Amino acid sequence: MDHIWKNPYDGKEYEVGETIPVYDYGGGGLVYGSTVVKYEDPGFPGVVQTQGGEYHAYSMTMLETEIIQWVMPAIEPESDWFYIGPAEIGWRALYARKEILKSKANEQAQISALLNLDIDEENEEEE
Questions:
Q1: What residues does 13 pair with on adjacent strands?
Q2: Which pairs from 103-111 meet CB under 8 Å and 24+ separation?
Q3: Strand 55-57 vs strand 47-50: parallel, antiparallel, or unpaired?
């Protein structure tokens, strides 16, 4: 029952994979023949710098010896974030979620860099 989307246009419930005959996209714009999809939180793989100096999204197929440093941390998917509804809106929601996680990872990387800078400065003062 958790894979159900209720169409406000006709009041009917549709399961993931079913076709919605018609729904209101907003402002009176009708969409016909859409499919109900479920997208789960994609997480963020993180960004690493590799031996050649390039930056890449982390992949589990990368060898640890290829990675010079983590530039942006990975963020694990949250089990309580998901989207169920028409595919046309779903891909936009998924894209927005990916951008939010990328921004969050970037903020974490900046905070970490600042903290490391402060630690390095403290160590230099002690020497």
A1: 6
A2: 104/44, 104/75, 105/44, 105/46, 105/47, 105/72, 105/73, 105/74, 105/75, 106/72, 108/72, 108/73, 108/75, 109/71, 109/72, 109/73
A3: antiparallel
Tens-level pLDDT at each residue, the chain (127 residues): 578 999 999 999 999 999 999 999 887 789 999 999 999 999 999 999 899 889 889 988 988 899 998 888 999 999 999 999 999 999 999 999 999 999 999 998 888 877 776 555 555 555 5
Cα–Cα distance list, 123 to 67, 116, 126 (Å)? 26, 10, 5
| Residue linked to tokens 């028409």 | 86
